[in-house]
């Protein structure tokens, strides 16, 4: 049984997230050649292999967790189609993880729009499905949006997770499972708890 969203605590959030990977990780990642679970695990694995800090690894691991909105309940009576998965994931995680990680989750879609506006060659990295979603998400940022986004204190980490998002779509990649990363997730949870006590 998964805990009710209101019953999540710093003690059970890591296991709850692991249960999502186990129960839902093989869901189709729309239009991509990997499942949702494979996609997030690939991003985290690439980050780990490249010696990235744990906050980046955990950010990559959880950046798309909000796609499983059924796990998180509905946030608004106004929900129609787009659940804004980046907001859904960040809203739950912000209680348990440092803001740098929840910013990586909350802004990974905006980061795609930002990079398409500021680095035109970035667009060439996008998969067909990512181009399609870019159009739904508002296309490349306008200059005023770019200036605003660039002020985020966690911009560097958000961009790092965005690049991992594009990288984590390989059909031939083996990764460890979520539980390999679980102690790292718990360390980030503990860091957040300590900083708020």
TrEMBL record:
- Every copy of the HD domain together lies at 38-108
What is the top-level taxon of the source organism? Answer: Bacteria
Q: What is this protein called?
A: HD domain-containing protein
From what organism does this protein derive?
Parasedimentitalea maritima
